[in-house]
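TL;DR need structure tokens for one chain.
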Amino acid sequence: MPTSKDTLKDRLTRYRQIKISVVGRSSGRTISIPVWFVFEGNNLYLLPVQGSDTQWYKNLLRHREIGISARGVEAESHTAPVTDPKAVASIVERFRKKYGAEDVKKYYSKFDVAVVVEILNSR
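>> reply
TL;DR here they are.
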């Protein structure tokens, strides 16, 4: 069971799913959804399940701030879209390593973009 001393980085090294919160590009409302992720160093990598057609990705293009929640530990950060094919392929490989190639193939349909989030502070 997580302790109150767990930081976001601690949880990101142990968990397989987090919640992200983005601001809707039309509605302006905060939308939260569960996602898979890969965490290395200070970087959190996100892979939209439908690539550039994914709604939360489109929202991030308009409002670059993202909320991250890992079972009660939260942070906000700025995002950077990744569109370079070689960089996206590298992130896809990280997802395959963590979640298995079959599950990535099963749940993800388009691999044209990714997102990187630098994790600095948590509360």
